[in-house]
Automatic annotation (TrEMBL):
EC number: 1.6.2.4
Flavodoxin-like domain residues: 46-183
GO-annotated cellular components: cytosol
CDD domains: SiR_like1
Gene3D superfamilies: 3.40.50.360, Nucleotide-binding domain of ferredoxin-NADP reductase (FNR) module, Translation factors
Domain FAD-binding FR-type: 197-309
Descriptive protein name: NADPH--hemoprotein reductase
Record field: transmembrane: 12-29
InterPro entries: FAD-bd_FR_type, Flavdoxin-like, Flavodoxin/NO_synth, Flavoprot_Pyr_Nucl_cyt_Rdtase, Flavoprotein-like_sf, FNR_nucleotide-bd, OxRdtase_FAD/NAD-bd, Riboflavin_synthase-like_b-brl
Domain of life: Bacteria
UniProtKB keywords: Electron transport, Flavoprotein, FMN, Membrane, Transmembrane, Transmembrane helix, Transport
GO molecular function: flavin adenine dinucleotide binding; FMN binding; NADPH-hemoprotein reductase activity
Source organism: Pseudoduganella buxea
Amino acid sequence: MIVTGDTTRLALTAASFAAYGLACLLPWLRQRKKRAAAKATGSDGWIVAHASQTGTGAELAEQTAATLRLAGIGVRLCEIGALTAETLQQTERILFIASTYGEGDAPDAAAAFADALMARQLPLPRLHYGVLALGDRSYAHFCGFGRALDGWLAAQGAQPLFERIDVDRGAAPAIGLWRQQLSHLAGTSDAPDWGAPAFAPWRLAARHLVNPGSAGAPVYHVELLPETGELPAWQSGDLVQVAAPADPDHPREYSIASIPADGRVHLLVRLHRHDDGSPGVASGWLCAGAAVGATVALRLRQHRRFRLEENFARPLILIGNGSGIAGLRGHLRARAAVGQGRNWLLFGERNAAHDLHYGAELHALRDAGMLERLDLAFSRDQPERLYVQDVLRRQAGALAEWMRQDAAIYVCGSLDGMAGGVDTALRDILGKEQVDALATQGRYRRDVY
């Protein structure tokens, strides 16, 4: 190393280093400024946006984001309902995971997005996108929302990264095709494990009929315990998947009617019969085919769209019919366990004499101050039909007051009739804008089937 005392040479050397440093610094500053601006508009990296009714779409979105992050790609994960027109116009790459609710509708959290944005023209020339559409071919409008979203994006000038992928009831080949497209986009063949937890052996510990003498189909209270290991944790609102021996590739989902403190998973299962009189594959097995003590292949599944989460401290309005009382019972038991009694249950069935499922328990909760209001609708107990949505309309004033007190609404039960009727009643009483806002905020949640 040569050391010099020539001040002129030292000055020139320092100036050269300074110029070099400035030349390197300026592009970095420009890029930093660009990234900050992009971050402010939501256009930094990729967006993975999901619309999910029962949580499957949200889980796939999380797995999609994890795959991209593993490849070093920046990802923002959000619900489709959180996307604005500005975000869509300024973002270059968005992957959509879009479930369909009912006969082609958007899930609750994406309903406002569909109404406000997909009903208008919105030029999207810089957007490149992919759509994973989730659905069930037994419905007339299979993957209806995902297909509508794909068509709307294309009509606005957005460019598809690949053809839309339609998934029938979680079919593994279609999910595999989505993963393959992700690998191509990310430039990696390595990815996190997307496999769902394996089914575990559980024991059918108890079962009894809860509606003897009913004019409707038999409904059974079912209790299950793991055959090995400790009882796993879950939250009220979660689901179980049961794989019946006759059709293990298509598990059926049931709302959990208990909390871990109960020591068992409780289900409320209605025995379904097909038009030819044959029993449903899973319900027939759980209600009659499997003997008490038999082994049941089961796994728990988080249902984040129906959990209490940030609504736990709010007043709760619980609305349901039939076996939908199962998911609502879980919430009531979770709240009662911590002394939270600001609960209002509106429940409907056929006849009071035979169909008030868990009736003694509900009355006990009310007497203990854990159920502030209990409104019941029995459709066959009077000449004119009376349904839970009719009772809701009669209590419009009380509903408006509870909503002013920051209440959250949870609906569980049948898609046909009840869920649509309740939704219409809510929109008539509260207004469409408020109901859409409640859904976006997570204060209006549904588990309907």
